[in-house]
Amino acid sequence: MTTPRLTKPTIGVLEVLLAADDADPAWGLRICGEADLGSGTVYPILERLTDLGWIEAWPETTPHPGRPARRFYKLTSTGRHRASEALRERASRRRTTFGLKGLAGGAA
Predict the structure, then answer these.
(1) H/E/C letters for each residue in 21-78?
(2) Which domains does the chain have, with CATH numbers?
(3) Which of 29, 32, 47, 81 has the most CB atoms around its CB within 10 Å?
(4) Model confidence pLDDT, tens digit, residues 32-80
(5) Which residues contact 38 (CB under 8 A, 6 or more apart)?
(6) Among 107, 66, 90, which residue's Cα sits nearest to residue 10?
(7) How many other CB atoms sit within 10 Å of the CB of residue 55?
(8) CA-CA distance, 46 to 41, in Å (whole number)?
């Protein structure tokens, strides 16, 4: 399975999806708000993650009067595992990179 490019917006979306649970799944505008990203950024990321099999999406079955039906998103079991793994690896690389830069910067 392919790993998407982990841009800051993608990481933000993944973090929101990782924090959501089955009883309270995330929906598009909620993800936008919690990740502090616009819909023009979030929805293409959600589409890519869906295409990769990392998330599944479904429409709200009982929409609230006065607004369009929400579309809910949740990580698949594989997606949850891969997202957690990718974010851990990225954090580890960043600690190593910034740790080495800090040592080099302090020695100069």
Answers:
(1) ECCECEEHHHHHHHHCCCHHHHHHHHHHHHHCCCEEEEECCCCCCCCCCCEEEEECHH
(2) 8-107 (1.10.10.10)
(3) 32
(4) 999 999 999 999 999 999 999 999 999 998 878 888 889 999 999 999 9
(5) 32
(6) 90
(7) 24
(8) 9
- Shortest CA distance to 51 belongs to which of 4, 84, 94? 4
| Contact (CB, 8 A) for 66 and 30 | no
Instruction: Record the tokens describing residue 6, joined without a space.
Output: 């982990």
Per-residue model confidence as pLDDT tens digits over 69-99: 899 999 999 999 999 998 898 888 877 776 6
Quick one: tokens of 37? 């990203």
pTM above 0.70, yes or no: yes
Block residue for tokens 């997606």: 79
CA distance 2 to 41: 20
- Here the tokens at position 88 are 């851990």
3: which 2 tokens? 């790993």
